[in-house]
Structures are given as C-alpha cells and as structure tokens.
Amino acid sequence: MSAQSGSGSRRRQTDADFVLDTRSLGRAPGSIRQVHRVVTASGKIGLDLIAIPAGAEIDLDLTLQAVSEGVLVTGSVSAPIEGECSRCLESFTDDLELEITELFAYPDSATEQTTEEDEIYRLVDDMIDIEPVITDAVGLELPLQPLCEPDCAGLCPECGVRMAIAGPDHTHEILDPRWAGLAKFASETPGTGVSDAPSDVDRSLADRHGSASSTTEEK
Q1: For residue 139, what are the contacts with CB-CB under 8 A and spacing of at least 6?
Q2: Where is this region: Disordered (predicted)?
C-alpha cells in the first residue's frame, strides 16, 4: 500500500471531495451509510501512458459500513481516461470503472496497533481520505502498455505510417541485403539502357568478315 489516510486528511477536515466524514455513521457494527458524489480530479491519476486526466469528473458510488475494527468502504469508481497507444502512438479516450474494498482502521484498534503504518489505511479525526485508495486502484487497473484497439496493427516498420490508415495493400519492396551493393552500383552507373551503337568487338568482327569476303572474290 503506497499511501494512507493521514496528513492529507488533517489538512482538510470537511466532508467534501475525496474526504468522507464518518461521524454520522457511528461505530455500532453494521451501521451503513451510502455516499454518492462527483469529484473533480485536481491532478493526473494513473500511469505515464494512460490516466484519468486532471480536471476529469470522478463518480463515486460508495457504501460505508461500521465494523468492529474500523469502517469498511466498498463501491464503484468511474471516470474518463486518456491514453497514448503503445503500438501506433495515437491518442485515445475511454471510460474506466473499478470496484474498491478497503478497511480504514479505528485509532487504537487491534488492527491499527498490529499493522505497520503503510500496511493499512486509518481514520483520522473520524475522517476518511479515499483519494489514496482510488490512486492505488487506478494504477493497478490500468495497463502498462495501453492500446487504442485490441487488434491495433501499430506502425509500418519501414516508413512509420499507421497501418490502420495505410490500407491492406501497403507494402514495401524488401531487397536482399546481399544484393544491396549491386543495386547501388547499377543505380550509380550511367547509361544503363541498351545502346544501338556497335561496340569495338562488333566492329572488329565486321572488319574480319569483310576481309575474308574480299579474298574469296579475288580467287
């Protein structure tokens, strides 16, 4: 557990945003309180390539239940997310919905006394700060390598164009590297076409043929 309800709750002791006041719930085991509110994310929540963006509305639909060791918080969290596809690098949007279940321990409870500070969340002045729970849950839910589509074909390895817009006929002529030097030589050599002018060998053969014909006629 990377965060806990602590100093953040001490700075803001009001039942608003991610902070939940449990005083109306009481401590009788079995007491239940429903909480539904929409909170605006003050900053990005998630991973580098995909996250709930700052300013997005996060919908909380929660149930607070008093138990012997603290307050059990369960429910759903939904919010829009923005990401960058790890294959084609295009931006995309989606919706995230996840379920949370977390116990916030009472001060001086057996659970609070037998666990390390970072092992469990705690109530502070009867307040619960649900933001660290959501931050941890979102980070675990989102993929490290997000995709705009499950079957995203990515980028062409030759020219870098998105295969989604390149079309099925998009291809490149791949030259065998063993012939690369010859292809370069041919492209740099002038006059690659077939010439109509006779070569030196052709002229020599013609001269010999003419001489032989003249000798035969003289005889």
Answers
A1: 46, 47
A2: 187-219
